[in-house]
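Hello,

I think I submitted the adenosine monophosphate job twice by accident. Can you confirm which output corresponds to this input? Input:
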Amino acid sequence: MIKIHNTNFELFLSEAEILAAVKRIAEDIAAEYKDEVPIFVGVLNGAFMFVSDFLKYYPYPCEVSFVKLSSYRGLTSTGIVETLLDVPDNIEGRDVIILEDIIDTGRTLQELVHIFSNTNVRNFKIASLFYKSEVYNGEYAIDYFGMEIPDKFIIGYGLDYKEQGRNLRDVYQINQTHMINLVLFGKPGAGKGTQAGYLKEKYNLKHISTGDVFRYNIKNNTKLGQLAKSYMEKGELVPDEVTISMLKDEVEKNPDASGFIFDGFPRTAAQAEALDNFLESKDMKIHATIALEANDEVLIKRLLERGKDSGRPDDQDESKIRNRFEEYNLKTAPLKEYYEAQEKFHSVNGIGSIEDITERLTKVINTLS
Ligand code: AMP
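Support: Only one job matched these inputs. Its output is below.
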């Protein structure tokens, strides 16, 4: 086991296994291209080791070049892939073989196919060392791959976790038994967002606030924002199917997280069940649901106060606030029983100083195994 940026990884593939796969791909490609002079195009940064070893196993004349793409991980529901180092010159009429370290959802691959479709290459093919066939949802059929691997975050042999780990000779996978996934539960104004801000630092967790994701999308006028806007303005819940698929997206965008704080999700029984099923499919689970308790009168005062600074329309009008409480009582409060049945429900007094409340939450989290 190794630790990088406070996250545990365990050995997954040895250098010998990796090199055997690289050699296999090189031999397959060599058999097909021995009469041509192909150009191998490595995708930086992750593929540099693969490209290096691949070329050592490739016995015939060839050229090598690189492209660099950056996949932006933000709050948007569609990842934006940006070109940082463009296609090489003089590829007109040539045979291009792209060398990728790993293909997962296919987002980067789609961009590569798009970039190379706009050039006058004679033909291009894709060779990837690792291939997550379970999560790949692109249309392009991968021409060559070294190994099919499960949907776990991996590092080493060129692949990084927050830029570290690229120099490892073996490949390691994230150790998900060391994850902590928490649901912060409570009425609007209970302090979920504030506390999540502290807990995510303390425990190195990724904070997903569904309300924040919706507000970000409304601000940027995305399709998701347009869908959510009318519901949010009235203090009603956004429909489950929209919210659930958005939440899944947010989790999938962070395959390297060492745990999540779900803030404002789940808010309905359907969401709670969808979350359990989704996490199970990834070998993950919720460890605890922690409720911040406070009475309505305190909460209304807090929300109206917050509304003065935040400008949130749903915080500025008492009738909208009451509507949010009604939605909570009707749809969200019953989840207490759902999590009690799983022995995961913990209740914490949400009144007091911010530090005192963080301390109460920390006590609960430190008892989790
Ligand atoms: P919040 O910031 O958590 O108070 O959420 C603000 C608003 O976003 C809510 O009143 C809902 O309209 C919407 N919203 C946030 N999370 C959810 C969810 N899990 N399900 C449905 N709607 C949600």
